[in-house]
Amino acid sequence: MERPHRESLDPAGAGAVLVGTTAVSIGLGALIGWAAGSWPLGALGGAVVGIPGGVFAVYRRYRGVFS
Fold first, then answer.
1. Distance, CA of 56 to CA of 50 (rounded, Å)
2. Tens of pLDDT along the chain (67 residues)?
3. Global confidence as pTM
């Protein structure tokens, strides 16, 4: 019997997911902040939300690697 194929951890892919998710969140925050009158505060809010969001996205993408 063959063993089921295990997913491998790709550090570059994980970094791309983390950076991409964080950058999109910062961009959306800056856009919302610009509409509200202060894009730097919006970008800061996007970073505050985006960093944990990026970590969660990496966790969801690679959740089967360590099991």
1. 10
2. 677 666 788 999 999 999 999 999 999 999 999 999 999 999 999 999 999 999 999 999 998 887 7
3. 0.84
Residue 54 lies in a domain: yes
Tokens describing residue 14: 């994980």
Examine residue 53 and state whether it is found in any structural domain, yes or no: yes
C-alpha to C-alpha distance for 20 and 59, rounded to whole angstroms: 14
Q: Is residue 67 part of a domain?
A: no
Question: Is 44 in contact with 30 (CB distance < 8 Å)?
Answer: no
Structural domain total, the chain:
1
